[in-house]
Amino acid sequence: MAVARLKFLDKNEEDLVHAQSLKCLNEIGVKIHSESVLKMLENAGANVNHKTQIAMIPEGLVNEAIKKAPKSFSIGARDPKYDIKLPASSYPYVSLGGVTAWIEDYETKKHREATRKDLADIVRLADDIKAVDAIWPLVTVRDVPPHAGFVNELWTCFQNTTKPIHGSAGSGTIGIPDAKIQIQLGALVAGGIEQLKKKPTFTVLSCIIAPQTFEKGAVEAQCEYAKAGVPVISMSMSLGGSTCPMTVAGTIVNANTENLASLVITQTAAPGAPHIYSSESTLVDVKTGYINYRAVETPLIYAACGQMAARYSLPKMTGILGIDPPTSGNLAPFGESAAYLMTTMNGTDLCSGVGGLDADAGCSMEQVVIDAYLWEDYRMFMRQFEISEKTIALDVLREVGHGNTFLKHPHTAKNFRSQIYFRDKKMEIYGKTMSTEMRENAHEIVKKILSEHKVEPLDKDILAKGNEIVRNYEKNPPV
């Protein structure tokens, strides 16, 4: 099947990125703020300086990790019809954005801190929207003890969707304890720890600190997730000119190096553990010092990372989705909107970002609807087309003859619906740029879904056990 793909690197450039990444790992290494992980890598063959916490990773260890990592696997859902099977066959699976700091109240439009009730509403909204395939806790909840934030967010998602869930790895002193509780909740919903390994009920994002640094809690938690069979999404957020070299090439190599190092950690901790190559790397906005998702260079860097992941046959999250305006709507000019959407076209299997505002500082429920409708339209560029002797249809050409029309031939009537995508004219308002005109319609959709959509509840015993696990963790913070 033919599927549109954006490529950036030629074969020689791809080879060079790989070679330079291996050189960086072997000669410069990565910094790991965890003695236990450093010892694990040292025992596996890495050259470790425990004083500086630098691990030099040889090519052989990288090659072994690539070999051991599964090339395909599924992310389970409470409802099996929503299971995500990686790699994706055409356009990527899309999820909400994650861990934003505030929510735009969908009634007052004011920014405020979010609660578990807000997250539950967001998740239930996304559960009903067909264009959203997976749920990332879109906002950080503030009505729980800080150490129990990620646990509460995961548990809130389990209760309000039957779709797959992306979670986040704890950091600092809560890394391993947080991971163990999340794994316990995931196993509870899956039906046991062995069932969780066979078909994990959630993934977890483990973010590398550019340049090439692994924080103690997160990297130790990553090993726990790997041992439990929970897929690790190893996201590099290299920022050219800020946390890596101020060149497109330097940013690509830094992101690839960080992903390979993370893969080695996962596969050393648990050979064969599911692992997802991921990058949200781009160049710094030199005017502000912030990340610039709408830069012209962004889809090119994402495309390069997608190519490198494909080189290693790893499932990948190398695309983002969402217009990310300062307030709900689409306030970006066409070129900036296009840059965002083009990141989805590099063959990535997963994308996140639906519902985010202001470079994912915040979120809104209306924006979930707006981004989802834009995606429903845009993803048609990546649908599959059969290219074969049958679809080329020389026999039909022979019948119609030179200089004649195909409009009346039965072949046209039989095939036009499978070949042409018809846009919904009622939704044209969502395609406007520099506009908030679609917000009123999105608001009505939010209200309708929240009032009508019901999610199949968790089994009463599972719900009670999960609530008890979460309450005990809240009362007993790790030290």
Can you offer a commentary on this structure?
With 479 residues, the protein is α/β, with parallel strands linked by helices. It has two domains: 66-383 and 464-472, Trimethylamine methyltransferase-like (TIM Barrel); 389-419, no CATH class. It contains 17 helices and 19 strands. Helix 4 (116-128) runs parallel beside helix 5 and helix 5 (149-160) runs parallel beside helix 6 (175-190).
Secondary structure blueprint with pairings:
Layout: H1 11-27, E1 30-32, H2 35-44, E2 47-49, E3 54-56, H3 59-68, E4 73-75, E5 84-86, E6 93-96, E7 102-104, E8 111-112, H4 116-128, H5 149-160, E9 165-168, H6 175-190, H7 193-198, E10 202-208, E11 213-214, H8 216-228, E12 232-236, E13 239-240, H9 248-269, E14 275-279, E15 282-283, H10 298-311, E16 316-317, H11 334-342, E17 350-354, E18 356-357, E19 362-363, H12 365-378, H13 389-392, H14 394-400, H15 410-419, H16 439-452, H17 460-475
Parallel strand pairs: 1-11, 6-17, 7-19, 9-10, 10-12, 12-14, 13-15, 14-16
Antiparallel strand pairs: 1-3, 2-3, 4-5, 7-8, 18-19
Helix pairs in contact: 1-9, 2-9, 3-9, 4-5, 5-6, 5-17, 6-8, 6-17, 8-9, 9-10, 12-16
